C-alpha cells in the first residue's frame, strides 16, 4: 500500500501570495541597467532598482491543500489493470491537490468519505460530472457506449461511434457498476453526501430519477463488516472505526476512520476526532503501528484534537503518530512524534 498526503491542512487554512522573480532574468536586467548607467556616468537609484524588480516579478500562489490521502494498491483497478487508487476523503480543492501530483479526478477508482463536512465531501459534484460524461473513463465504459455495429461498419475503417451517456440514461439504462468510480462509506454518510450534492447533480438533461447510484458505484459499509484488498502476497483487511467528531446540543456527528491490517502492519486513519484516544478508543491506538492523526493548531475549535491535548498522551502512542490537518505546522520536539506530514509526502507499506 502506498500512501500519499494530497494535502495536510485544515478546512480553513489558506495559502500565501508572494512576489516571485526569476533570478537569472533579473540578474541580466540589472546587469544591463548598471552598464547603461555607467555609460551615462550615473548610478542606479534605489527607486530604479525597485522598479526593475517589480517589472520582472510575478505574483504566485502557494496553496495549503485540505487534508486528503491517496491510497494505492497494486491490484486490479477499474482504470488500470495493476493499480487501484482510493482517495480517502475529498474536499473542494481535490482537483488541484490531485493535479499537484500529476493526476486528475477521472484517474481515481474509488473515493471514501468519513463524514459529510465540506473539506471531506466538497469535491463530489466535480468528481461526478467529470467522470459520468467521459465515455473513455475506462475500457468497459467505452465498450458499453459503442453503437450496434452493422455489416457496413465492420467492413469500413471508420471508428465505431459511441452513444451519449445521457441517451442511454434517457432510455432507462443504468451505467454498469464497472463503468463508474466506487464510493465507499456508511449509509448515513452517503445519504448526507447526496443531500449536499443533489442540487448540482439532479439536473441531467432529460433524465429522471437521478441518484448517487447514477454517478457512482456505492459500497455501503457496515460497522460490523471487514473488507479486503489483495496486494500480491499481502492481504489488507480494513474496517471502519467510529470516533466522535462534533457534539452540539443533542446532535452528534461521528467520523468513521479506517484501520488497515496486514500480517506485518496495522495502519490507522482516525480521520477527524474531537478527542485524542478516549478510553473506548484506546485499543485501536495501542494496536496500530502507524497512526495518521488530525492535529489542530491555533485557537481551539472544540471539534478537533488540539496539539496541546495530543502532547499529553502516552509517549509510545505519540511516536506512532504522523500529524496533519493543521492551519500552521505545529512545532514539535525531535523524536516526539513519528513525524509532521508534508504536502505530497509518500509512505510505502
Task: Give a brief outline of the structure.
Helix 11 (282-287) links the parallel strand 12 (266-271) and strand 13 (290-294). The chain is globular and about 80 Å long.
Question: Topology of this structure?
Answer:
Elements: E1 2-7, E2 16-21, H1 23-39, H2 46-55, E3 57-62, E4 68-73, E5 84-88, H3 94-99, E6 110-112, H4 118-121, H5 124-132, H6 139-145, H7 151-155, H8 165-170, E7 182-186, H9 187-201, H10 212-215, E8 217-221, E9 227-231, E10 234-248, E11 251-261, E12 266-271, H11 282-287, E13 290-294, H12 307-310, H13 315-318, E14 321-324, E15 339-340, E16 346-348
Parallel strand pairs: 5-6, 6-7, 7-8, 12-13, 13-14, 14-15
Antiparallel strand pairs: 1-4, 1-16, 2-3, 4-5, 9-10, 10-11, 11-12
Please explain how this structure is put together.
Among the domains are: 16-62, no CATH class; 70-199, no CATH class. Helix 5 crosses helix 9. The protein is 28% helix and 27% strand. Strand 12 (266-271), helix 11 (282-287) and strand 13 form a beta-alpha-beta unit. It has helices spanning 23-39, 46-55, 94-99, 118-121, 124-132, 139-145, 151-155, 165-170, 187-201, 212-215, 282-287, 307-310, 315-318, and strands at residues 2-7, 16-21, 57-62, 68-73, 84-88, 110-112, 182-186, 217-221, 227-231, 234-248, 251-261, 266-271, 290-294, 321-324, 339-340, 346-348. It is of the alpha/beta class. The strands form three sheets. Strands 8-7-6-5-4-1-16 form a seven-stranded mixed sheet. It has a seven-stranded mixed sheet with strand order 9-10-11-12-13-14-15. It has 13 helices and 16 strands.
Amino acid at each position: 500500500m502506498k500512501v500519499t498526503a494530497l494535502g495536510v491542512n485544515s478546512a480553513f487554512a489558506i495559502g500565501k501570495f508572494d512576489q516571485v522573480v526569476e533570478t537569472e532574468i533579473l540578474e541580466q536586467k540589472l546587469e544591463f541597467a548598471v552598464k547603461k548607467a555607467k555609460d551615462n556616468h550615473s548610478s542606479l537609484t534605489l527607486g530604479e532598482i525597485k522598479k526593475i524588480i517589480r517589472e520582472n516579478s510575478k505574483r504566485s500562489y502557494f496553496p495549503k491543500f485540505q487534508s486528503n490521502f491517496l491510497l494505492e494498491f497494486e491490484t486490479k483497478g477499474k482504470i488500470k489493470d495493476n493499480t487501484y487508487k482510493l482517495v480517502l476523503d475529498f474536499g473542494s480543492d481535490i482537483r488541484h491537490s490531485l493535479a499537484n501530483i500529476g493526476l486528475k479526478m477521472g484517474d481515481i477508482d474509488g473515493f471514501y468519505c468519513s463524514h459529510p463536512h465540506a473539506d471531506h465531501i466538497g469535491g463530489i459534484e466535480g468528481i461526478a460530472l467529470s467522470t459520468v460524461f467521459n465515455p473513455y473513463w475506462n475500457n468497459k465504459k467505452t465498450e458499453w457506449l459503442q453503437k450496434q455495429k452493422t455489416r457496413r461498419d465492420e467492413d469500413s475503417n471508420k471508428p465505431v461511434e459511441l452513444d451519449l451517456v445521457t441517451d442511454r440514461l434517457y432510455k432507462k439504462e443504468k451505467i454498469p457498476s464497472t463503468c463508474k468510480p466506487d464510493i465507499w462509506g456508511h449509509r448515513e454518510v452517503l445519504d448526507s453526501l447526496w443531500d449536499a450534492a443533489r442540487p448540482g447533480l439532479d439536473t441531467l438533461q432529460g433524465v429522471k430519477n437521478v441518484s448517487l447510484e447514477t454517478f457512482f458505484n456505492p459500497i455501503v459499509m457496515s460497522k460490523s463488516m471487514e473488507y479486503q484488498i489483495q496486494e500480491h502476497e499481502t492481504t489488507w483487511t480494513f474496517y471502519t472505526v467510529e470516533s466522535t467528531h462534533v457534539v452540539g446540543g443533542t446532535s452528534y456527528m461521528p467520523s468513521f476512520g479506517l484501520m488497515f491490517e496486514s500480517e506485518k502492519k496495522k495502519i490507522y486513519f482516525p480521520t477527524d476526532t474531537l478527542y485524542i484516544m478516549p478510553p473506548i478508543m484506546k485499543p485501536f491506538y495501542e494496536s496500530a503501528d502507524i497512526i495518521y492523526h488530525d492535529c489542530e493548531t491555533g485557537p481551539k475549535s472544540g471539534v478537533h484534537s488540539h496539539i496541546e491535548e495530543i502532547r499529553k498522551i502516552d509517549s509510545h502512542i505519540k511516536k506512532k503518530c504522523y500529524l496533519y490537518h493543521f492551519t500552521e505546522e505545529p512545532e514539535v520536539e525531535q523524536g516526539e512524534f513519528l513525524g509532521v506530514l508534508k504536502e505530497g509526502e509518500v509512505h510505502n507499506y
